[in-house]
Protein backbone atom coordinates (compact mmCIF):
# COMPACT_ATOMS: atom_id res chain seq x y z
CA UNK A 1 0.00 0.00 0.00
CA UNK A 2 2.95 2.32 0.34
CA UNK A 3 4.02 2.48 -3.32
CA UNK A 4 2.09 3.62 -6.36
CA UNK A 5 3.10 0.42 -8.09
CA UNK A 6 4.07 -2.70 -6.17
CA UNK A 7 7.81 -3.28 -6.38
CA UNK A 8 8.66 -5.05 -9.59
CA UNK A 9 8.72 -8.82 -9.11
CA UNK A 10 12.26 -10.20 -8.95
CA UNK A 11 11.80 -11.80 -12.36
CA UNK A 12 14.28 -9.37 -13.78
CA UNK A 13 16.89 -11.84 -14.94
CA UNK A 14 18.32 -11.03 -18.34
CA UNK A 15 16.44 -13.67 -20.33
CA UNK A 16 13.07 -12.67 -18.95
CA UNK A 17 13.78 -9.00 -19.50
CA UNK A 18 14.54 -9.70 -23.17
CA UNK A 19 11.38 -11.79 -23.50
CA UNK A 20 9.35 -8.96 -22.00
CA UNK A 21 10.91 -6.46 -24.38
CA UNK A 22 10.12 -8.77 -27.29
CA UNK A 23 6.50 -9.09 -26.03
CA UNK A 24 6.30 -5.31 -25.90
CA UNK A 25 7.79 -4.95 -29.39
CA UNK A 26 5.33 -7.46 -30.84
CA UNK A 27 2.41 -5.67 -29.21
CA UNK A 28 3.65 -2.42 -30.73
CA UNK A 29 3.81 -4.15 -34.11
CA UNK A 30 0.25 -5.30 -33.77
CA UNK A 31 -1.07 -1.88 -32.87
CA UNK A 32 0.84 -0.12 -35.56
CA UNK A 33 -0.53 -2.53 -38.10
CA UNK A 34 -4.12 -1.92 -37.14
CA UNK A 35 -4.79 0.69 -39.75
CA UNK A 36 -6.71 2.78 -37.25
CA UNK A 37 -5.94 5.47 -34.73
CA UNK A 38 -6.40 3.12 -31.80
CA UNK A 39 -4.02 4.05 -29.02
CA UNK A 40 -1.73 1.41 -27.59
CA UNK A 41 -2.21 0.58 -23.89
CA UNK A 42 0.63 1.66 -21.59
CA UNK A 43 3.28 -0.50 -19.93
CA UNK A 44 1.67 -1.63 -16.68
CA UNK A 45 4.64 -0.79 -14.49
CA UNK A 46 4.33 2.92 -15.30
CA UNK A 47 0.57 3.10 -15.55
CA UNK A 48 -2.20 3.56 -13.02
CA UNK A 49 -4.06 0.27 -13.44
CA UNK A 50 -7.77 0.19 -12.68
CA UNK A 51 -9.42 -3.24 -12.68
CA UNK A 52 -13.20 -3.24 -13.09
CA UNK A 53 -15.51 -6.21 -12.82
CA UNK A 54 -18.05 -6.97 -15.52
CA UNK A 55 -20.97 -6.12 -13.23
CA UNK A 56 -19.45 -2.75 -12.34
CA UNK A 57 -18.79 -1.80 -15.93
CA UNK A 58 -22.08 -3.09 -17.28
CA UNK A 59 -25.58 -3.53 -15.97
CA UNK A 60 -25.95 -7.27 -15.58
CA UNK A 61 -28.73 -7.34 -13.01
CA UNK A 62 -31.07 -9.45 -15.16
CA UNK A 63 -28.27 -11.83 -16.11
CA UNK A 64 -27.19 -12.11 -12.48
CA UNK A 65 -30.71 -13.20 -11.60
CA UNK A 66 -30.43 -16.08 -14.07
CA UNK A 67 -27.07 -17.02 -12.59
CA UNK A 68 -28.44 -17.06 -9.06
CA UNK A 69 -31.74 -18.74 -9.77
CA UNK A 70 -30.74 -21.24 -12.42
CA UNK A 71 -27.58 -23.21 -13.16
CA UNK A 72 -24.26 -21.82 -14.36
CA UNK A 73 -24.78 -23.58 -17.68
CA UNK A 74 -28.08 -21.73 -18.27
CA UNK A 75 -26.41 -18.42 -17.45
CA UNK A 76 -23.54 -18.96 -19.91
CA UNK A 77 -25.98 -20.16 -22.54
CA UNK A 78 -28.13 -17.04 -22.07
CA UNK A 79 -25.10 -14.81 -22.48
CA UNK A 80 -24.05 -16.63 -25.63
CA UNK A 81 -27.52 -16.35 -27.12
CA UNK A 82 -27.54 -12.61 -26.51
CA UNK A 83 -23.93 -12.16 -27.50
CA UNK A 84 -24.60 -9.51 -30.06
CA UNK A 85 -26.82 -7.44 -27.82
CA UNK A 86 -24.66 -4.84 -26.07
CA UNK A 87 -25.09 -4.62 -22.32
CA UNK A 88 -26.25 -1.38 -20.71
CA UNK A 89 -23.76 0.75 -18.76
CA UNK A 90 -23.15 -0.13 -15.11
CA UNK A 91 -22.10 2.03 -12.12
CA UNK A 92 -18.42 2.22 -13.05
CA UNK A 93 -19.11 3.14 -16.67
CA UNK A 94 -19.00 6.95 -16.27
CA UNK A 95 -15.81 6.64 -14.23
CA UNK A 96 -14.16 4.52 -16.94
CA UNK A 97 -15.22 6.98 -19.67
CA UNK A 98 -13.72 9.81 -17.65
CA UNK A 99 -10.44 7.88 -17.29
CA UNK A 100 -10.32 7.46 -21.06
CA UNK A 101 -10.86 11.21 -21.54
CA UNK A 102 -7.93 11.97 -19.22
CA UNK A 103 -5.78 9.55 -21.21
CA UNK A 104 -6.58 11.40 -24.43
CA UNK A 105 -5.48 14.67 -22.87
CA UNK A 106 -2.31 13.06 -21.48
CA UNK A 107 -1.42 11.53 -24.83
CA UNK A 108 -1.82 14.94 -26.47
CA UNK A 109 0.62 16.56 -24.07
CA UNK A 110 3.01 13.63 -23.63
CA UNK A 111 2.83 11.40 -26.74
CA UNK A 112 5.61 9.06 -25.62
CA UNK A 113 4.72 8.67 -21.98
CA UNK A 114 3.52 5.40 -20.44
CA UNK A 115 2.12 7.24 -17.40
CA UNK A 116 -1.53 6.81 -18.22
CA UNK A 117 -4.57 5.04 -16.90
CA UNK A 118 -4.68 1.38 -17.82
CA UNK A 119 -8.11 -0.24 -17.61
CA UNK A 120 -8.43 -4.00 -17.18
CA UNK A 121 -11.68 -5.95 -17.24
CA UNK A 122 -11.27 -8.36 -14.33
CA UNK A 123 -14.09 -10.84 -14.16
CA UNK A 124 -14.91 -14.18 -12.63
CA UNK A 125 -16.94 -14.93 -15.68
CA UNK A 126 -16.38 -17.80 -18.04
CA UNK A 127 -14.47 -16.91 -21.21
CA UNK A 128 -17.53 -17.60 -23.36
CA UNK A 129 -19.37 -14.75 -21.61
CA UNK A 130 -16.33 -12.73 -22.55
CA UNK A 131 -17.41 -12.49 -26.15
CA UNK A 132 -20.54 -10.57 -25.14
CA UNK A 133 -18.45 -8.34 -22.87
CA UNK A 134 -16.01 -7.61 -25.68
CA UNK A 135 -18.85 -6.91 -28.12
CA UNK A 136 -20.33 -4.48 -25.61
CA UNK A 137 -16.97 -2.76 -25.17
CA UNK A 138 -16.75 -2.46 -28.96
CA UNK A 139 -20.24 -1.00 -29.10
CA UNK A 140 -19.32 1.85 -26.76
CA UNK A 141 -15.86 2.12 -28.31
CA UNK A 142 -14.15 1.98 -24.93
CA UNK A 143 -10.37 1.74 -24.85
CA UNK A 144 -10.14 -1.44 -22.83
CA UNK A 145 -7.57 -3.85 -24.26
CA UNK A 146 -6.64 -5.93 -21.26
CA UNK A 147 -8.83 -8.69 -19.89
CA UNK A 148 -8.78 -11.39 -17.32
CA UNK A 149 -11.64 -13.89 -17.38
CA UNK A 150 -10.93 -16.32 -14.64
CA UNK A 151 -13.70 -18.85 -15.34
CA UNK A 152 -14.67 -19.05 -11.67
CA UNK A 153 -11.27 -18.69 -9.98
CA UNK A 154 -10.67 -15.94 -7.43
CA UNK A 155 -9.32 -12.79 -9.06
CA UNK A 156 -7.05 -11.77 -6.17
CA UNK A 157 -3.81 -13.30 -7.48
CA UNK A 158 -4.61 -11.97 -10.93
CA UNK A 159 -5.07 -8.47 -9.53
CA UNK A 160 -1.49 -8.62 -8.37
CA UNK A 161 -0.30 -10.15 -11.63
CA UNK A 162 -1.88 -7.27 -13.59
CA UNK A 163 -0.28 -4.74 -11.18
CA UNK A 164 -3.61 -3.30 -10.12
CA UNK A 165 -3.80 0.07 -8.34
CA UNK A 166 -7.57 0.09 -7.84
CA UNK A 167 -10.17 -2.68 -8.06
CA UNK A 168 -13.88 -1.98 -8.46
CA UNK A 169 -16.44 -4.74 -8.09
CA UNK A 170 -19.97 -5.44 -6.88
CA UNK A 171 -18.79 -8.45 -4.92
CA UNK A 172 -18.08 -7.47 -1.31
CA UNK A 173 -16.16 -10.62 -0.50
CA UNK A 174 -13.66 -10.08 -3.30
CA UNK A 175 -13.25 -6.41 -2.45
CA UNK A 176 -12.57 -7.23 1.18
CA UNK A 177 -9.99 -9.83 0.19
CA UNK A 178 -8.31 -7.30 -2.08
CA UNK A 179 -8.08 -4.71 0.69
CA UNK A 180 -6.63 -7.31 3.02
CA UNK A 181 -3.99 -7.99 0.37
CA UNK A 182 -3.12 -4.30 0.25
CA UNK A 183 -4.90 -3.45 -3.00
CA UNK A 184 -7.18 -0.36 -2.99
CA UNK A 185 -10.66 -1.63 -3.69
CA UNK A 186 -14.31 -0.63 -3.37
CA UNK A 187 -17.80 -2.04 -3.87
CA UNK A 188 -19.75 -0.16 -6.56
CA UNK A 189 -23.33 1.00 -6.06
CA UNK A 190 -25.59 2.25 -8.80
CA UNK A 191 -27.37 5.48 -7.85
CA UNK A 192 -31.17 5.53 -7.59
CA UNK A 193 -31.37 8.62 -9.73
CA UNK A 194 -29.24 9.48 -12.73
CA UNK A 195 -27.15 12.65 -12.59
CA UNK A 196 -25.50 14.58 -15.40
CA UNK A 197 -21.73 14.24 -15.06
CA UNK A 198 -18.84 16.09 -16.64
CA UNK A 199 -17.47 14.56 -19.82
CA UNK A 200 -14.32 16.64 -19.83
CA UNK A 201 -13.12 16.28 -16.26
CA UNK A 202 -12.63 13.24 -14.03
CA UNK A 203 -14.03 14.11 -10.60
CA UNK A 204 -13.18 11.81 -7.66
CA UNK A 205 -14.48 12.34 -4.11
CA UNK A 206 -13.01 10.67 -1.05
CA UNK A 207 -14.14 10.37 2.54
CA UNK A 208 -11.28 10.97 4.98
CA UNK A 209 -11.19 8.58 7.90
CA UNK A 210 -10.86 4.89 7.04
CA UNK A 211 -10.56 5.72 3.33
CA UNK A 212 -7.61 8.08 2.81
CA UNK A 213 -6.55 7.78 6.40
CA UNK A 214 -6.57 4.84 8.79
CA UNK A 215 -9.51 4.27 11.08
CA UNK A 216 -7.59 5.24 14.23
CA UNK A 217 -9.67 8.34 14.86
CA UNK A 218 -12.91 6.65 14.04
CA UNK A 219 -12.15 4.06 16.68
CA UNK A 220 -11.96 6.89 19.21
CA UNK A 221 -15.35 8.27 18.14
CA UNK A 222 -17.02 4.88 18.30
CA UNK A 223 -15.50 3.84 21.57
CA UNK A 224 -15.18 7.10 23.48
CA UNK A 225 -17.58 9.53 21.85
CA UNK A 226 -17.28 12.79 19.96
CA UNK A 227 -15.95 14.99 22.75
CA UNK A 228 -12.97 12.74 23.33
CA UNK A 229 -12.48 12.63 19.57
CA UNK A 230 -12.32 16.46 19.29
CA UNK A 231 -9.88 16.73 22.18
CA UNK A 232 -7.72 13.98 20.78
CA UNK A 233 -7.57 15.48 17.31
CA UNK A 234 -6.66 18.90 18.65
CA UNK A 235 -3.96 17.42 20.81
CA UNK A 236 -2.45 15.44 17.97
CA UNK A 237 -3.06 18.02 15.29
CA UNK A 238 0.53 17.92 14.17
CA UNK A 239 0.90 14.17 14.20
CA UNK A 240 0.05 12.77 10.75
CA UNK A 241 -2.62 10.11 10.63
CA UNK A 242 -1.69 6.68 9.30
CA UNK A 243 -2.53 5.75 5.71
CA UNK A 244 -5.82 4.31 4.61
CA UNK A 245 -6.57 1.93 1.70
CA UNK A 246 -7.23 4.67 -0.89
CA UNK A 247 -4.26 6.88 -0.10
CA UNK A 248 -2.14 5.42 -2.90
CA UNK A 249 -4.86 6.00 -5.44
CA UNK A 250 -5.08 9.67 -4.47
CA UNK A 251 -1.30 9.78 -4.80
CA UNK A 252 -1.47 8.27 -8.29
CA UNK A 253 -4.08 10.86 -9.31
CA UNK A 254 -1.88 13.61 -7.90
CA UNK A 255 1.07 12.41 -9.96
CA UNK A 256 -0.97 12.64 -13.14
CA UNK A 257 -2.33 16.05 -12.17
CA UNK A 258 1.22 17.38 -11.83
CA UNK A 259 1.84 16.39 -15.46
CA UNK A 260 -0.86 18.83 -16.49
CA UNK A 261 0.45 21.55 -14.18
CA UNK A 262 3.90 21.13 -15.72
CA UNK A 263 2.40 22.05 -19.08
CA UNK A 264 0.56 25.08 -17.73
CA UNK A 265 -2.79 23.32 -17.69
CA UNK A 266 -3.63 23.80 -14.01
CA UNK A 267 -6.79 25.75 -14.71
CA UNK A 268 -7.86 23.26 -17.34
CA UNK A 269 -6.81 20.10 -15.52
CA UNK A 270 -9.06 17.15 -16.41
CA UNK A 271 -8.67 15.60 -12.95
CA UNK A 272 -10.22 17.13 -9.85
CA UNK A 273 -10.17 15.60 -6.36
CA UNK A 274 -12.45 16.26 -3.40
CA UNK A 275 -12.33 15.43 0.28
CA UNK A 276 -15.81 15.08 1.76
CA UNK A 277 -15.51 14.51 5.48
CA UNK A 278 -17.79 14.57 8.46
CA UNK A 279 -15.03 16.32 10.40
CA UNK A 280 -15.44 20.01 11.10
CA UNK A 281 -13.12 22.71 9.80
CA UNK A 282 -13.02 24.44 13.18
CA UNK A 283 -11.69 21.55 15.23
CA UNK A 284 -10.72 18.18 13.82
CA UNK A 285 -10.21 19.31 10.24
CA UNK A 286 -6.73 20.76 10.70
CA UNK A 287 -5.13 17.40 11.39
CA UNK A 288 -6.42 16.04 8.10
CA UNK A 289 -5.01 18.87 6.03
CA UNK A 290 -1.70 18.69 7.84
CA UNK A 291 -1.52 14.95 7.25
CA UNK A 292 -2.06 15.39 3.53
CA UNK A 293 0.60 18.06 3.45
CA UNK A 294 3.04 15.80 5.29
CA UNK A 295 2.49 13.17 2.60
CA UNK A 296 3.17 15.70 -0.11
CA UNK A 297 -0.34 15.27 -1.45
CA UNK A 298 -2.75 17.92 -2.61
CA UNK A 299 -6.48 17.69 -2.73
CA UNK A 300 -8.32 20.25 -4.84
CA UNK A 301 -11.31 20.83 -2.58
CA UNK A 302 -11.70 19.88 1.09
CA UNK A 303 -15.26 19.99 2.35
CA UNK A 304 -15.89 19.74 6.07
CA UNK A 305 -19.46 18.87 6.92
CA UNK A 306 -19.27 18.84 10.73
CA UNK A 307 -21.62 15.88 10.76
CA UNK A 308 -24.15 17.13 8.20
CA UNK A 309 -25.38 14.60 5.60
CA UNK A 310 -23.14 14.18 2.55
CA UNK A 311 -25.85 13.61 -0.05
CA UNK A 312 -26.75 17.21 -0.94
CA UNK A 313 -23.14 18.34 -1.11
CA UNK A 314 -22.18 15.42 -3.35
CA UNK A 315 -25.00 16.36 -5.67
CA UNK A 316 -23.32 19.74 -6.11
CA UNK A 317 -19.90 18.17 -6.70
CA UNK A 318 -21.12 15.49 -9.12
CA UNK A 319 -18.19 13.12 -8.83
CA UNK A 320 -17.75 10.14 -11.15
CA UNK A 321 -17.09 8.13 -8.02
CA UNK A 322 -17.33 8.76 -4.26
CA UNK A 323 -15.42 6.52 -1.83
CA UNK A 324 -16.67 6.10 1.74
CA UNK A 325 -16.23 3.42 4.39
CA UNK A 326 -19.66 3.75 6.00
CA UNK A 327 -22.75 2.24 4.39
CA UNK A 328 -24.82 4.98 5.97
CA UNK A 329 -23.09 7.58 3.79
CA UNK A 330 -23.08 5.30 0.75
CA UNK A 331 -26.83 4.92 0.98
CA UNK A 332 -27.30 8.65 1.44
CA UNK A 333 -25.19 9.37 -1.62
CA UNK A 334 -26.90 6.72 -3.72
CA UNK A 335 -30.38 8.01 -2.90
CA UNK A 336 -29.50 11.44 -4.19
CA UNK A 337 -27.91 10.29 -7.42
CA UNK A 338 -24.19 10.00 -6.65
CA UNK A 339 -22.20 6.95 -7.79
CA UNK A 340 -20.93 5.56 -4.50
CA UNK A 341 -18.18 3.04 -3.80
CA UNK A 342 -18.03 1.37 -0.41
CA UNK A 343 -14.58 0.73 1.07
CA UNK A 344 -15.09 -2.13 3.54
CA UNK A 345 -12.26 -1.17 5.88
CA UNK A 346 -11.92 -0.39 9.53
CA UNK A 347 -14.13 -0.18 12.54
CA UNK A 348 -17.02 1.39 10.64
CA UNK A 349 -17.87 -2.05 9.27
CA UNK A 350 -18.93 -3.25 12.68
CA UNK A 351 -21.41 -0.43 13.13
CA UNK A 352 -24.67 0.45 11.46
CA UNK A 353 -26.00 3.99 11.94
CA UNK A 354 -23.85 4.42 15.02
CA UNK A 355 -24.79 1.19 16.75
CA UNK A 356 -22.51 -1.80 17.21
CA UNK A 357 -23.75 -4.69 15.10
CA UNK A 358 -21.42 -7.36 16.41
CA UNK A 359 -19.90 -7.94 19.85
CA UNK A 360 -16.44 -6.49 20.45
CA UNK A 361 -13.72 -8.97 19.62
CA UNK A 362 -10.44 -9.13 21.53
CA UNK A 363 -8.26 -6.14 20.58
CA UNK A 364 -5.15 -7.30 18.73
CA UNK B 1 -20.86 -52.08 -27.89
CA UNK B 2 -18.42 -49.54 -29.20
CA UNK B 3 -19.79 -46.11 -29.92
CA UNK B 4 -18.33 -45.33 -33.33
CA UNK B 5 -18.84 -41.59 -32.91
CA UNK B 6 -16.57 -41.52 -29.88
CA UNK B 7 -13.67 -43.21 -31.60
CA UNK B 8 -11.48 -40.29 -32.59
CA UNK B 9 -8.81 -41.15 -30.07
CA UNK B 10 -6.46 -41.84 -28.54
CA UNK B 11 -4.91 -38.42 -28.12
CA UNK B 12 -1.26 -39.34 -28.28
CA UNK B 13 1.23 -37.16 -26.45
CA UNK B 14 4.97 -37.69 -26.60
CA UNK B 15 7.24 -36.84 -23.69
CA UNK B 16 10.98 -37.05 -23.36
CA UNK B 17 12.37 -39.13 -20.55
CA UNK B 18 14.55 -36.34 -19.23
CA UNK B 19 11.39 -34.33 -18.53
CA UNK B 20 9.73 -37.23 -16.76
CA UNK B 21 12.72 -38.06 -14.64
CA UNK B 22 15.23 -35.73 -13.10
CA UNK B 23 18.54 -37.11 -14.24
CA UNK B 24 20.54 -34.33 -12.64
CA UNK B 25 19.72 -35.45 -9.16
CA UNK B 26 20.42 -39.17 -9.60
CA UNK B 27 23.54 -38.95 -7.46
CA UNK B 28 21.73 -37.22 -4.59
CA UNK B 29 18.67 -39.46 -4.75
CA UNK B 30 18.16 -41.87 -1.89
CA UNK B 31 15.72 -44.05 -3.80
CA UNK B 32 17.75 -46.69 -5.60
CA UNK B 33 14.74 -48.45 -7.08
CA UNK B 34 13.64 -45.66 -9.34
CA UNK B 35 14.85 -42.51 -11.04
CA UNK B 36 13.98 -39.24 -9.27
CA UNK B 37 10.76 -37.52 -10.38
CA UNK B 38 11.11 -34.83 -13.02
CA UNK B 39 9.15 -31.79 -14.20
CA UNK B 40 6.59 -33.80 -16.17
CA UNK B 41 5.39 -35.70 -13.14
CA UNK B 42 2.45 -33.48 -12.22
CA UNK B 43 1.50 -33.47 -15.91
CA UNK B 44 1.37 -37.28 -15.93
CA UNK B 45 -0.75 -37.36 -12.80
CA UNK B 46 -3.14 -34.75 -14.19
CA UNK B 47 -3.46 -36.68 -17.48
CA UNK B 48 -4.23 -39.85 -15.57
CA UNK B 49 -6.93 -38.02 -13.60
CA UNK B 50 -8.57 -36.84 -16.84
CA UNK B 51 -8.50 -40.39 -18.23
CA UNK B 52 -10.04 -41.79 -15.04
CA UNK B 53 -12.84 -39.25 -15.15
CA UNK B 54 -13.46 -39.91 -18.86
CA UNK B 55 -13.71 -43.64 -18.27
CA UNK B 56 -16.00 -43.05 -15.27
CA UNK B 57 -18.45 -41.33 -17.58
CA UNK B 58 -18.19 -43.83 -20.40
CA UNK B 59 -16.40 -47.15 -20.04
CA UNK B 60 -15.91 -47.53 -23.77
CA UNK B 61 -14.68 -44.00 -24.40
CA UNK B 62 -11.69 -44.25 -26.69
CA UNK B 63 -10.84 -40.55 -26.76
CA UNK B 64 -8.36 -40.84 -23.95
CA UNK B 65 -4.87 -39.48 -23.51
CA UNK B 66 -2.06 -41.87 -24.37
CA UNK B 67 1.44 -40.90 -23.38
CA UNK B 68 4.52 -42.31 -25.09
CA UNK B 69 8.03 -41.82 -23.85
CA UNK B 70 10.94 -40.95 -26.11
CA UNK B 71 14.54 -41.30 -25.08
CA UNK B 72 17.43 -39.90 -27.04
CA UNK B 73 20.86 -41.36 -26.67
CA UNK B 74 20.93 -43.27 -23.47
CA UNK B 75 22.85 -46.19 -22.10
CA UNK B 76 21.38 -49.68 -21.70
CA UNK B 77 21.50 -49.19 -17.97
CA UNK B 78 19.39 -46.05 -18.10
CA UNK B 79 16.97 -47.70 -20.55
CA UNK B 80 16.23 -50.44 -18.04
CA UNK B 81 16.01 -47.94 -15.21
CA UNK B 82 13.45 -45.92 -17.20
CA UNK B 83 11.16 -48.87 -17.77
CA UNK B 84 11.48 -49.95 -14.15
CA UNK B 85 10.86 -46.48 -12.80
CA UNK B 86 7.71 -46.08 -14.88
CA UNK B 87 6.41 -49.30 -13.39
CA UNK B 88 7.53 -48.25 -9.92
CA UNK B 89 5.54 -45.01 -9.98
CA UNK B 90 2.53 -46.63 -11.63
CA UNK B 91 2.70 -44.29 -14.61
CA UNK B 92 0.56 -45.11 -17.61
CA UNK B 93 3.07 -44.97 -20.44
CA UNK B 94 1.81 -46.57 -23.64
CA UNK B 95 5.05 -47.08 -25.54
CA UNK B 96 8.77 -46.52 -25.20
CA UNK B 97 11.02 -45.34 -28.02
CA UNK B 98 14.75 -45.34 -27.68
CA UNK B 99 16.26 -43.52 -30.62
CA UNK B 100 19.11 -41.31 -31.70
CA UNK B 101 18.85 -37.52 -31.50
CA UNK B 102 18.52 -37.23 -35.30
CA UNK B 103 15.67 -39.73 -35.33
CA UNK B 104 13.47 -37.75 -32.92
CA UNK B 105 11.47 -35.94 -35.60
CA UNK B 106 10.93 -39.13 -37.63
CA UNK B 107 9.79 -41.03 -34.58
CA UNK B 108 7.28 -38.34 -33.78
CA UNK B 109 5.99 -38.19 -37.34
CA UNK B 110 5.63 -41.92 -37.84
CA UNK B 111 3.68 -42.37 -34.63
CA UNK B 112 1.08 -39.75 -35.51
CA UNK B 113 1.76 -37.92 -32.31
CA UNK B 114 -0.93 -35.31 -31.70
CA UNK B 115 1.29 -33.35 -29.37
CA UNK B 116 5.00 -33.34 -28.58
CA UNK B 117 5.55 -31.85 -25.17
CA UNK B 118 8.92 -30.67 -23.91
CA UNK B 119 10.51 -28.22 -21.51
CA UNK B 120 13.24 -27.66 -24.10
CA UNK B 121 12.17 -24.64 -26.13
CA UNK B 122 14.54 -25.49 -28.96
CA UNK B 123 13.06 -28.98 -29.36
CA UNK B 124 9.55 -27.55 -29.45
CA UNK B 125 10.58 -24.92 -31.98
CA UNK B 126 12.30 -27.47 -34.21
CA UNK B 127 9.32 -29.84 -34.14
CA UNK B 128 6.88 -27.04 -35.01
CA UNK B 129 9.13 -26.03 -37.85
CA UNK B 130 8.67 -29.46 -39.42
CA UNK B 131 4.91 -29.38 -38.89
CA UNK B 132 4.71 -31.53 -35.79
CA UNK B 133 2.31 -30.14 -33.19
CA UNK B 134 4.48 -29.17 -30.26
CA UNK B 135 3.99 -27.20 -27.09
CA UNK B 136 5.91 -26.27 -24.00
CA UNK B 137 5.64 -28.36 -20.91
CA UNK B 138 5.50 -25.48 -18.46
CA UNK B 139 8.06 -26.29 -15.83
CA UNK B 140 6.53 -24.48 -12.90
CA UNK B 141 3.32 -26.45 -12.64
CA UNK B 142 1.96 -26.70 -9.12
CA UNK B 143 3.37 -29.79 -7.45
CA UNK B 144 0.21 -30.25 -5.44
CA UNK B 145 -2.45 -29.98 -8.10
CA UNK B 146 -3.18 -33.36 -9.64
CA UNK B 147 -6.88 -33.15 -10.21
CA UNK B 148 -6.88 -30.78 -13.15
CA UNK B 149 -4.98 -30.58 -16.41
CA UNK B 150 -4.56 -26.99 -17.59
CA UNK B 151 -3.91 -26.15 -21.24
CA UNK B 152 -3.17 -22.67 -22.56
CA UNK B 153 -3.56 -21.76 -26.24
CA UNK B 154 -1.88 -18.69 -27.64
CA UNK B 155 -4.47 -16.13 -28.66
CA UNK B 156 -1.83 -14.36 -30.74
CA UNK B 157 -1.14 -17.38 -32.92
CA UNK B 158 -4.83 -18.08 -33.42
CA UNK B 159 -6.20 -14.53 -33.54
CA UNK B 160 -3.55 -12.47 -35.34
CA UNK B 161 -4.32 -11.67 -38.97
CA UNK B 162 -1.87 -12.66 -41.73
CA UNK B 163 -0.97 -9.00 -42.23
CA UNK B 164 -0.13 -8.45 -38.59
CA UNK B 165 2.06 -11.56 -38.57
CA UNK B 166 3.92 -10.39 -41.68
CA UNK B 167 4.37 -7.00 -40.03
CA UNK B 168 6.38 -8.63 -37.25
CA UNK B 169 9.39 -8.73 -39.57
CA UNK B 170 9.94 -5.04 -38.89
CA UNK B 171 10.31 -5.76 -35.21
CA UNK B 172 13.15 -8.23 -35.23
CA UNK B 173 11.30 -11.45 -36.04
CA UNK B 174 12.88 -13.56 -38.77
CA UNK B 175 11.04 -15.09 -41.74
CA UNK B 176 11.53 -18.53 -40.19
CA UNK B 177 10.02 -17.43 -36.91
CA UNK B 178 7.00 -15.96 -38.68
CA UNK B 179 6.53 -19.13 -40.75
CA UNK B 180 6.73 -21.22 -37.58
CA UNK B 181 3.95 -19.18 -36.01
CA UNK B 182 1.76 -19.75 -39.06
CA UNK B 183 2.46 -23.49 -38.97
CA UNK B 184 1.71 -23.56 -35.28
CA UNK B 185 -1.82 -22.34 -35.92
CA UNK B 186 -2.50 -25.28 -38.24
CA UNK B 187 -1.04 -27.71 -35.72
CA UNK B 188 -3.03 -26.24 -32.87
CA UNK B 189 -6.28 -26.79 -34.70
CA UNK B 190 -6.21 -30.57 -34.68
CA UNK B 191 -5.25 -30.66 -31.05
CA UNK B 192 -7.91 -28.08 -30.13
CA UNK B 193 -10.61 -30.09 -31.90
CA UNK B 194 -9.76 -33.19 -29.86
CA UNK B 195 -9.44 -31.29 -26.59
CA UNK B 196 -12.76 -29.61 -27.35
CA UNK B 197 -14.43 -32.99 -27.70
CA UNK B 198 -12.88 -34.13 -24.45
CA UNK B 199 -13.82 -30.94 -22.64
CA UNK B 200 -17.44 -31.34 -23.63
CA UNK B 201 -17.65 -34.63 -21.77
CA UNK B 202 -17.58 -32.54 -18.59
CA UNK B 203 -19.69 -29.66 -17.26
CA UNK B 204 -18.54 -26.12 -16.65
CA UNK B 205 -17.75 -26.77 -13.03
CA UNK B 206 -15.63 -29.50 -11.54
CA UNK B 207 -13.94 -30.38 -14.81
CA UNK B 208 -10.59 -32.18 -14.71
CA UNK B 209 -9.66 -30.34 -17.89
CA UNK B 210 -9.20 -26.55 -17.88
CA UNK B 211 -8.62 -24.71 -21.15
CA UNK B 212 -7.43 -21.12 -21.51
CA UNK B 213 -6.54 -18.57 -24.14
CA UNK B 214 -3.64 -16.19 -23.49
CA UNK B 215 -3.27 -13.25 -25.84
CA UNK B 216 0.08 -11.80 -25.01
CA UNK B 217 0.55 -9.17 -27.71
CA UNK B 218 -2.79 -8.62 -29.37
CA UNK B 219 -5.62 -6.32 -28.34
CA UNK B 220 -9.17 -7.30 -27.51
CA UNK B 221 -10.12 -7.90 -31.13
CA UNK B 222 -7.35 -10.46 -31.46
CA UNK B 223 -8.55 -12.13 -28.27
CA UNK B 224 -12.19 -12.08 -29.42
CA UNK B 225 -11.12 -13.51 -32.77
CA UNK B 226 -9.18 -16.29 -31.03
CA UNK B 227 -12.17 -17.15 -28.83
CA UNK B 228 -14.49 -17.33 -31.83
CA UNK B 229 -12.03 -19.39 -33.88
CA UNK B 230 -11.58 -21.88 -31.06
CA UNK B 231 -15.34 -22.08 -30.76
CA UNK B 232 -15.59 -22.88 -34.47
CA UNK B 233 -13.04 -25.64 -33.92
CA UNK B 234 -15.29 -27.02 -31.20
CA UNK B 235 -13.51 -25.75 -28.10
CA UNK B 236 -15.24 -23.41 -25.63
CA UNK B 237 -12.36 -22.27 -23.46
CA UNK B 238 -12.86 -21.67 -19.75
CA UNK B 239 -10.51 -18.79 -19.08
CA UNK B 240 -9.18 -15.94 -21.21
CA UNK B 241 -6.39 -13.45 -20.65
CA UNK B 242 -5.61 -10.54 -22.90
CA UNK B 243 -2.44 -8.64 -22.16
CA UNK B 244 -1.85 -6.28 -25.10
CA UNK B 245 1.89 -6.26 -24.42
CA UNK B 246 1.90 -6.53 -20.63
CA UNK B 247 4.38 -9.12 -19.28
CA UNK B 248 2.89 -12.61 -19.27
CA UNK B 249 5.10 -14.36 -16.71
CA UNK B 250 3.09 -13.06 -13.71
CA UNK B 251 -0.09 -14.44 -15.29
CA UNK B 252 1.52 -17.79 -16.09
CA UNK B 253 2.72 -17.97 -12.50
CA UNK B 254 -0.89 -17.74 -11.33
CA UNK B 255 -2.47 -20.03 -13.94
CA UNK B 256 0.33 -22.63 -13.74
CA UNK B 257 -0.53 -24.49 -16.94
CA UNK B 258 0.80 -27.91 -17.81
CA UNK B 259 0.66 -27.42 -21.56
CA UNK B 260 1.54 -24.04 -23.06
CA UNK B 261 0.90 -23.67 -26.79
CA UNK B 262 2.86 -20.58 -27.66
CA UNK B 263 3.76 -21.44 -31.24
CA UNK B 264 7.39 -20.81 -30.41
CA UNK B 265 6.55 -17.17 -29.62
CA UNK B 266 7.76 -16.95 -26.07
CA UNK B 267 11.25 -18.20 -26.71
CA UNK B 268 12.26 -15.50 -29.17
CA UNK B 269 15.81 -14.74 -28.18
TrEMBL record, chain A:
Comp. bias intervals (Basic and acidic residues): 1-35
InterPro entries: 5-nucleotidase
One GO BP annotation of this record: adenosine metabolic process
Stretch list, region Disordered: 1-44
GO MF, any single term: magnesium ion binding
GO CC term, one of those recorded: cytosol
Listed name of the protein: Cytosolic 5'-nucleotidase 1A-like
Gene for this chain: LOC107549510
